[in-house]
Write a structure and sequence with these properties.
Length: 310
């Protein structure tokens, strides 16, 4: 059997970092008061605030998972779970602060948007700082936005799907995610709509001793199709950083979804991701993942799907 040759990756592409400047950084730790503060910072509706606090209760009830690597170096009292950068959500790269824009320039995101993508989302630390989608998709009723906007503008659609595919009791770090999630992507493709050019979201963690907890929620309705790409990276520090994102994918009857993810992490990153799909009758789900780790990288990543019956 022949082996596939994988070219060496230049880690310098991801190890550059910006000065740790931010508009707001939550104090380290994990308490009800911290969750309340995150909820206030996010302008959560009442139902989301209650959801976060319940998730924290579940987190405190559950034991550490035994099916992954040693997590003894993870100390939540040393992790800031919310960092808001000095940037607001923009639909123009020119409005993004230079240091953040230059970060995504180095990662090739603006150029990829010009040449091969139908829409782009870019998150820096805990907030999405840039989002765009081609006008023709908007005209077809496709929704592609950040999760906070989705919670505000599409509450029923979000409430009917948010953490129903990945419930908070799945394991301790899913519960953690439910309590502190911030940022991420929301996609809805209406019945019968074919999105021929991929959408992509990229998540960049810059701040040391912090966590990134983006939530991706994708709904591909009956007979529709989509290719969605996610990318993640962070520079190397000598302190532990935490990534505990969550991906929920709903592929309705006779629909098609290709979900591709490329993650590049360094030795100080604990990657505790959970990704799950529910696939309808005669639907097709293609899952393509590439996780690149450097030195002593630790990963606990659950990626799985179930077929919905009847």
């Amino acid at each position: 059997m022949s082996k596939t040759q994988i070219d060496e990756i230049n880690r310098n592409l991801y190890d550059f970092k910006n000065k740790d400047e931010y508009d707001f950084k939550i104090k380290k730790g994990l308490t009800p008061e911290i969750i309340e503060e995150i909820s206030t910072q996010k302008n959560d509706p009442d139902w989301m605030r209650a959801f976060r606090l319940k998730a924290l209760e579940v987190y405190n009830e559950l034991e550490l998972p035994t099916w992954g690597p040693d997590l003894s170096e993870l100390d939540m009292s040393e992790i800031a779970t919310y960092v808001r950068p000095k940037s607001k959500l923009s639909h123009s790269w020119e409005e993004v602060p230079d240091d953040i824009k230059n970060t995504f320039d180095k990662l090739g995101i603006p150029e990829a948007e010009k040449t091969s993508l139908a829409g782009v989302g870019a998150q820096y630390d805990s907030e999405v700082v840039y989002h765009s989608m081609k006008e023709e998709l908007i005209q077809q009723g496709v929704i592609y936005t950040d999760m906070e906007t989705a919670v505000s503008e599409y509450p029923d659609l979000v409430k009917n799907h948010f953490m129903k595919c990945v419930p908070v009791y799945d394991h301790k770090f899913v519960a953690l995610h439910g309590a502190v999630w911030s940022g991420g992507s929301f996609v809805y493709v209406p019945k019968g709509v074919k999105v021929d050019i991929p959408l992509q979201s990229y998540f960049r963690l810059n701040s040391p001793e912090s966590g990134q907890f983006e939530h991706t929620l994708i709904i591909v309705d009956e007979g529709a199709s989509l290719h969605f790409i996610e990318g993640c990276s962070a520079p190397k520090y000598n302190k532990v950083n935490l990534h505990a994102g969550c991906v929920e994918l709903y592929v309705k009857d006779n629909a098609y979804l290709r979900y591709s993810t490329i993650e590049n992490w360094s030795k100080n990153m604990l990657n505790l991701n959970t990704k799950k799909a529910i696939v309808g009758e005669n639907a097709k789900m293609e899952w393509v993942s590439r996780i690149v780790w450097f030195e002593n990288f630790h990963v606990v990543s659950h990626e799985y799907f179930k077929r919905r019956r009847g």
